[in-house]
Amino acid sequence: MTEYDIAVIGGGPGGYVAAIRAAQQGACVCLIEAERVGGTCLNHGCIPTKALYSTAQLLHRMRQAEEHGILVDTPRFDFAKAATRKDEVVKKLVGGVEQLLKANKVELYRGKASLEGPGRLRIQRPDVTARLRAKNIIIATGSRAVRPEAFAVDGRNVLTSREILAIKELPESLLVIGGGYIGCEFASIFAAFGTQVTVVEQLPRLLGGSDPQVVKEVEKSFQQAGIAVHTDTTVEGLEVDSGRVRVRLSGRDEVSVEKVLVAVGRTPNSADLGLEEAGVKTEKGAILVDEGMRTSQAGIFAIGDVTNIIQLAHVASYQAGIAVANALGGDEKADYQVVPSAIFTLPEIGQVGLTEEAARERDLDFEVGRFSYQASSKALCDGEARGLVKLVAAADDGRILGASFVGEEASSLVAEAAVAMAAGLSAEALGRVIHAHPTLPEMVMEAAEDVHGLAVHKTGRKRNR
């Protein structure tokens, strides 16, 4: 029996990256995956959602074509074709990951893995059970959508994010339970496709944790798109009848829709892994790890959503490098001070570090720089003048503490702020960097200059705290 240096359980953006990183350093590696490599992100989450988002964004732009002097008939939309394109994108990327694993000589096992003791794993398939040994084990089993019993998810009328990505016919109406990033992304996408969308959120506003000023821009776009938003509202009951769902909302009349999407969070995939028997400590289903991604048992590491530290694909990939380094004798520690994220609504959101609200709650002494898309020559040329850039900087030395973006290419613009934060740049230093003209990143420069009231293309007195 081959003894591997590292065995990785789970082939998502944490697991397959860990396997390849280990192989690149000369380790003998295997990867165990029960479904397709790529995990939820590639197969049932980030990528298929963004493929549909790209289609929704194109439709949005086509409907504005007349403003550019392009006269076209009202575009017709074929959801089945868009769904097929989405599947083809996923298939191509899955194949790419498989080729990367093969090229790096990572041995891929298909099946469900569980711990059997120190350095021992069992792989279960319907027709066979196999066992292997490994000096180190990295658990990267990800997470799954929360399915509250009260909402009776049936996969046909009441769906999670996984099931809604598998539908082949466009629903006439959709009610989204949960106004977080998953719910709001699907709301934007399906509204652009022509579905009548309703979003229900029990908190006072959508997208909790994002900058309130940024969220207001998204709420305005939702209103223009005809999306009904009910905040401070709970779903008191669901009933499926004759292919439709009757939804009882607190303090409101009953709503009847064709489909319901339950988007109320995700929970770690830690069941049936043999964790308790192996002495691996968990808390509320999440595997407990230290800064080096080590679990309570020597030689066993955990990364990604199953740790419930930050449920983002790129964080799982980052943690993969930490776990591999330490499994091979290093002593690296994870640092989460600079973690950018993107929300693919229409318009997009990009964010990193502290929001203005969070800085105030921490009683920090800070300054704020703002710049509007309406003052950007490139945004006006593109016909995408809705949005803003906001930088939060320390009052004493000008270090950038956080940034929030909403508008065209916000998901890309946030990278510049993240790099500046990681490099320890001050707002003044970032404002001195020459930016190409005319481009959207000039707004980052102007927001940085506005921290000290020096933005050239901004009128009026600078407002801070």
TrEMBL record:
Domain FAD/NAD(P)-binding: 4-320
Localization annotation: Cytoplasm
Cofactors (names): FAD
Listed EC numbers: 1.8.1.4
Domain of life: Bacteria
Keywords in alphabetical order: Cytoplasm, Disulfide bond, FAD, Flavoprotein, NAD, Oxidoreductase, Redox-active center
Family statement drawn from the similarity comment of this UniProt entry: Belongs to the class-I pyridine nucleotide-disulfide oxidoreductase family.
The protein's name in its UniProt record: Dihydrolipoyl dehydrogenase
Protein's organism: Geoalkalibacter halelectricus
Gene name for this UniProt entry: lpdA
